[in-house]
Amino acid sequence: MNRLEFLKQILAGFGGFWLAGKRAEAKPAEKPEPVSLGIMPVAGYRYYDGKKIENRIKPGDKARLKREPENKYDRDAIAVYIMGHKIGYIPRRHNPVIALMMDQQANVNATIAYVNKEEEEEGRVWVEVSV
């Protein structure tokens, strides 16, 4: 095979792909795995409804986080709700970054990590926060 024949074959190969209109099919983007921001105790547990429902709370339950920017004690306050009951807050030392993410509409989620009914009230219920 001489150089001219070789080039013809190469170009024919590329042309065949181009003429056939073959394109790689776009795959839908996979949903990324959640990234944990940490496991933390629910603060202020003794002051809210946690005791009323703690027999129904179990690991894996979804919790709802609600920003409270008008909270007079902490402008970064994030309340934790389970089954429609407020059970406390994300601890103050953890909430600045999480509050900023929530304020920027990030999809921040919380799940009950564990419940220890033998622990003092501030360490009875722990949540895992993730984005």
TrEMBL record:
Give the record's keywords alphabetically: Hydrolase, Metal-binding
The UniProt GO MF terms for this protein read: hydrolase activity, acting on acid anhydrides, in phosphorus-containing anhydrides; nucleic acid binding; zinc ion binding
Where in this chain does the record put each HIRAN domain? 37-129
Q: What is this protein called?
A: HIRAN domain-containing protein
Q: Please give the organism.
A: bioreactor metagenome
